[in-house]
Amino acid sequence: MREDKHKQIRVLLVEDNAVSARFAEAMLSRVEDQTFNIQCAETLLAALDLLVRDTFDVALLDLNLPDSQGLETFRTIQRHAPVLPIIVLTGLEDEKVALSAVQQGAQDFLAKGTLNKETLVRALNYAIARTRNPSEAASQVDDKAKIIGLLGSNGGVGTTTLACHCALELGQTGKRVLLLDLDVSSAGASFLMKVDSPHTSLEAAQNLHRLDANLWKGITCSPREGVDLLQAPGAVGISDTLDADRVRHILRFARSLYGWIVVDLGRLTASKLAILEETKDLFIVTTPQLSALYETRRLLQKLLDAGFSREKLRLLLNRKTKGMEISVEQVEKALGYPVYGSIADDSAEMSEAYAERRFLDEKLLVRKQIAQVMRKLRGIEEEPPMRFGLGFLRLARAIG
Fold first, then answer.
1. Are residues 131 and 184 in the same domain?
2. How many CA atoms lie within 13 A of 365 on its CB side?
3. DSSP string over 225-246
4. Can you list the positions of beta strands (E) in 257-327?
5. Domain termination site, one of 105, 139, 173
6. How many domains does the chain have?
7. Hey, which residues does 341 pair with through a beta bridge?
8. Which of 105, 108, 336, 366 is most buried, by the most CB atoms less than 10 A from its CB?
9. Using CA atoms, how far apart are residues 85 and 360, in angstroms rounded to an integer?
10. What mean pLDDT value characterizes the chain?
11. How far is CA 37 from the centre of its chain?
12. DSSP conformation letters of 179-233
């Protein structure tokens, strides 16, 4: 009981007025029976960045910030942290707006001009107590999109091609799919999907504070039924970089809109490690070439050293040729890791299809084999081939 009483309460304070922020911090530092750990943000974007990096028990939110005004400030925080209890801080002249925020889900509002320690502490504790219990929060997360990532062991292993096929295959499940292209060195997914949108993932990252359903619809495109694409900046964004924390916000926002999210990660960079944490399953794409297998071994070890579980990492062997020098079993032994799925190398068929601009033809062998991998991921067992005994063969001959 004593431990619960003195449990540290993590507070996100979003306030651009330095005097008001210090006043709130000073009041919470003088509470005898509780400890408050306060992190401050002066802008909405700074608050969103903190929400990715840390976990909070409650938020104190000023609605009028340098980069966002009024109810939209509250709605943005609510979209990005739907289970976080929010208390609105307001001036006396803004009480109608604050009341509207409460009607839309804020736990309470406090007028800055009459704020005191007792009122503030009571409001924080009541807000935390009134929020939904952990099991309800967990069930809400489970209802959102499952995120799978595809990460290449090195360049040229076909990561983008497989990501596109995965998205199209999952689009057949009846759930809407987002293909998020984060391979910023190219625009491969756009090329294969035959789209050329002026909007990219970089634009979404730069407009997190404005991100809502209408803006999202404007920056994504729908190259196939049931599949949306948020394309990579490619060469046009070569001078800009995608901040990993902001990409995580994009993913968290998109989870409420889709059943599946497929992320083409390209090759691993230091900034992408944080993005990998958002994925439920991470496919490591490689080929039987010795150079690719060498890089795969190093990549797997790096991910394991970074704390990723073996169960999350799934090895996908692309371009497996008939009669290749080393077998799948030898690949597994060399890497110390099981092969989750393999895709045959059917270069002749793919070259013919590409010449006719049928880049993602569902008749291609790669699509059929990706379909098997996706069924396995979804827990759908493959039907075993029918086996006929000699008695059946004699009967077949007799009635033939």
1. no
2. 15
3. TTEEEE---GGGGTT----HHH
4. 260-267, 281-286, 313-320
5. 139
6. 2
7. 316
8. 366
9. 45
10. 85
11. 28
12. EEE--TT--HHHHHHT---S--HHHHHHTGGG-SHHHHHHH-EEEETTEEEE---
Q: Facing residues of 260 across strands? A: 146, 177
Per residue in 187-246, pLDDT tens? 789 889 998 888 888 888 888 877 888 899 999 999 999 999 999 877 454 445 677 878
Q: Nearest CA to 60 among 111, 97, 103?
A: 111
DSSP assignment of 15-73 equals -S-HHHHHHHHHHHHT-SS-EEEEEEESSHHHHHHHHHH---SEEEEES-BTTB-THHH
Output DSSP code: residue 91. -
Q: Do 70 and 217 have their domain in common?
A: no
Here the tokens at position 383 are: 């039907």
Rounded to whole angstroms, the Cα distance separating 216 from 254 reads 9
Report the pLDDT value the prediction gives residue 359, as an integer from 0 to 100.
86
Amino acid letter, residue 23: F
Q: What are phi and psi of 288, to 5 degrees?
A: -70, -5
For 105-119, the pLDDT digits (tens) are 999 999 888 889 999
Residues of the chain with pLDDT under 50: 1-4, 134-141, 235, 237-239, 385-388, 391-400
Q: How far apart are CA 133 and CA 139, in angstroms?
A: 10
Maximum Cα–Cα distance across the chain: 96
Structure tokens, 116: 């005191």
pTM, 2 dp: 0.77
Residues linked to residue 87 through DSSP beta bridges, in sequence order: 60, 108
Give the domain extent around 372. 144-377
